[in-house]
């Protein structure tokens, strides 16, 4: 029977190997939908441990089973993403990215490493538990439409059917050795909004003879914020932000087209659909008032992420047993998004945070920054916790 002490001992014995794996993955990052070498490396590790698995699922995805005694009793899935970001790394780490312009700035190298470690140890001790563990190495979390929905469509939640799923994500706001949970709504849906404002361009000195697309754009952006402030139900957190504006004119040229791109995020599917309609109507009407047109393109992204209360309670209690209550914290809602939401829309699940911060070592940079790194002690925490949480989910 696996116990906390035995798991910690097994993970500690694998510490050097975990660091080696993580550093290799970190040094060889690949962008979304391009993770061929990363997938090959994961497959090599699994093969060296005699763990059967399937490759090329929905692209570069990998999945497999660790079957314990009475394997049909229950199936718990563990998911790790493995893609990187288009960022130039600015650290002096000996394992810094060798692929210039691509960086594991969101910790997916850590997620993959922890899952590999957990699978190896659980496979070695599969006679000590009942049920089945399905492991999922997922590509393309960082880019729409995301790898999760593609793997789900490929049947990753079936054969056998998944009863519960767990995912963890690094969190540089939290000290290494600590983890955080949020039951219920946790992360927002995410949609990409593009506005194409068009009109008759021309000389800026004779605005009466042109359609001022730039002025129309400015008024559209201000007016759209009233959807958030005046139309959003007060109980539903909502954000509408624009960060990309291209008006290719000049000091004396009003362009014929202005392109604006941004993001819309919220926590309710009915309101999300209604807000899309309001955004279209508002942008088109304001543009028309300026004699312009506005084409609104909304790329619907990930749904909001809601942690199942029972699965989350079991996971949190397991974390308290494994790390001590003082190292388990409660988290607030986040307006960031995660395609793990697709899994928990279909099966009960929990997505939680793994602390990676170490101020003494200067490891404090945020996610998606060129200076991001983690305290590698978190590899032991993340690996061991995945194992213990999985065992408790199987027993529940």
Largest sheet: 8 strands, mixed
CATH architecture assignment name of the largest domain:
3-Layer(aba) Sandwich
CATH class of the largest domain: Alpha Beta
The number of distinct helices, counting runs of at least 4 residues, comes to: 10
The share of residues in extended strands comes to: 25-35%
* Tally of individual domains: 2
The largest sheet has its strands arranged as 1-2-4-3-5-16-6-15
Could you give me the name of the CATH homologous superfamily of the largest domain?
Zn peptidases
End-to-end separation: 16 Å
Structural class: alpha/beta
Rg on CA atoms, Å: 24 Å
The helix/strand series, from N terminus to C terminus, equals HHHEEEHEHEEEEEHEEEHEEHEHEH
Work out the number of β strands: 16
Query: Average pLDDT, to the nearest integer?
Result: 97
What is the 3D form?
A: elongated
User: Which range best describes the helical content: under 10%, 10-25%, 25-40%, 40-55%, 55-70% or over 70%?
Assistant: 25-40%
């Amino acid at each position: 029977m696996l116990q906390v002490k035995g798991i910690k001992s097994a993970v500690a014995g694998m510490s050097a190997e975990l660091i080696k794996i993580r550093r290799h993955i970190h040094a060889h990052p690949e962008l979304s939908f391009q993770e061929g070498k990363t997938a090959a490396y994961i497959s090599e590790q699994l093969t060296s441990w005699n763990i059967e698995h399937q490759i090329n699922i929905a692209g570069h995805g990998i999945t497999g089973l660790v079957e314990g005694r009475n394997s049909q009793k229950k199936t718990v899935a563990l998911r790790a993403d493995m893609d990187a970001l288009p960022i130039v790394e600015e650290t002096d780490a000996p394992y810094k990215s060798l692929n210039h312009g691509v960086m594991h700035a969101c910790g997916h190298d850590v997620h993959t490493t922890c899952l590999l470690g957990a699978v190896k140890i659980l496979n070695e001790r599969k006679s000590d538990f009942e049920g089945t563990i399905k492991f999922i190495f997922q590509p393309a979390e960082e880019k729409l439409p995301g790898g999760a929905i593609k793997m789900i469509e490929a049947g990753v939640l079936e054969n056998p059917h998944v009863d519960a799923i767990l995912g963890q994500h690094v969190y540089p706001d939290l000290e290494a050795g600590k983890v955080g949970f949020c039951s219920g709504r946790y992360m927002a849906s995410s949609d990409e909004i593009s506005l194409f404002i068009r009109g008759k361009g021309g000389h800026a000195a004779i605005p009466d003879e042109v359609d001022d697309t730039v002025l129309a754009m400015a008024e559209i952006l201000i007016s759209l914020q009233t959807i958030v402030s005046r139309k959003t139900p007060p109980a539903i957190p909502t954000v509408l932000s624009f960060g990309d504006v291209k008006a290719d004119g000049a000091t004396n040229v009003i362009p014929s087209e202005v392109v604006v791109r941004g993001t819309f995020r919220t926590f309710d599917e009915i309101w999300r659909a209604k807000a899309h309609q309001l955004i279209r109507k508002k942008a088109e009407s304001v543009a028309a008032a300026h004699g312009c047109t506005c084409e609104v393109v909304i790329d619907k992204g990930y749904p909001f992420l809601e942690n199942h209360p029972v699965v989350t309670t079991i996971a949190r209690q397991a974390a308290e047993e494994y790390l001590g209550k003082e190292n388990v914290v409660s988290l607030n809602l986040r307006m960031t998004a995660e395609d793990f939401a697709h899994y928990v829309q279909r099966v009960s699940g929990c997505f939680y945070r793994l602390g990676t911060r170490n101020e003494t070592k200067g490891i404090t940079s945020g996610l998606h920054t060129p200076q991001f790194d983690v305290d590698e002690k978190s590899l032991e925490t993340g690996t061991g916790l995945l194992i213990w949480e999985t065992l408790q989910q199987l027993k529940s």
